[in-house]
C-alpha cells in the first residue's frame, strides 16, 4: 500500500457559481465503468473543479474548468478563498484515485455570479472534447451544498460555504 505522506497534493481549483436567486450550481457525477469512487455512493453531487495545468494561473484554470465542465462563460468573478484548502483521499483510494499520484487535492476556490441564460449551460457535449463530468445539474440552496458532497470533501465544502456565504446575504 502506498504511504499517503509520501504523495503530494494535486494543485486544483474549485468553482462556486451563484445565480441571481443566490442558489449554487451543482452537477451530479455519472456512474461510469471503473469509477474510482464508490459506485453506490449517493453523494455524487459537486461543484465544478479540476487540475491546474503547468504554468496556468488559478483564476485562468477556474474559468477553463467551468467552461469545460458546464459551458458557462457569462460569469462575473465575486471572490476567492483566502487560502488554499486541502482534502485527503480515504485510505482505500490512495494509489487508485487521481491516477494514483496524489494523496488528495489542494484547491483554490473562486465564486462567480452566473450572468447568462440557462440554455448556455452544456454538460452533455463539453467543448474541445473534454470528458463529460455531469449527467444532470441543479441550482440548490447554499445550506444544502455540503450535504450533497462525498464525505471526504465535506470539510472543504464547509470552508468554501463559510467564506462565500456572506456574498448571498441580502
Describe the structure.
The structure is a single chain. The chain has a single domain (about 5-165), classed as Nucleoside Triphosphate Pyrophosphohydrolase. It is built from two helices and eight strands, in the order ββββαββββα. The chain has helices at about 60-70, 155-165; strands spanning about 10-20, 25-30, 45, 50, 75-80, 85-90, 105-115, 135-140. The strands form two sheets. Strands 1, 4, 5, 6 and 7 form a five-stranded mixed sheet that branches. A three-stranded antiparallel sheet has the order 3-2-8, with no helix packed on it. It is globular, with a radius of gyration of 15 Å.
Domain count: the total is: 1
Low-confidence stretches: none
Query: What is the succession of H and E elements?
Result: EEEEHEEEEH
What is the total tally of β strands? 8
What about the largest sheet? 5 strands, mixed
CATH architecture: Alpha-Beta Complex
Based on helices, strands and strand pairing, what is the structural class? Answer: alpha+beta
Distance between the termini: 50 Å
Q: What's the CATH class, please?
A: Alpha Beta
Give the gist of this structure.
The chain has 170 residues and is α+β, with helices and mostly antiparallel strands. It has a single domain, classed as Nucleoside Triphosphate Pyrophosphohydrolase. It is built from two helices and eight strands, in the order E-E-E-E-H-E-E-E-E-H.
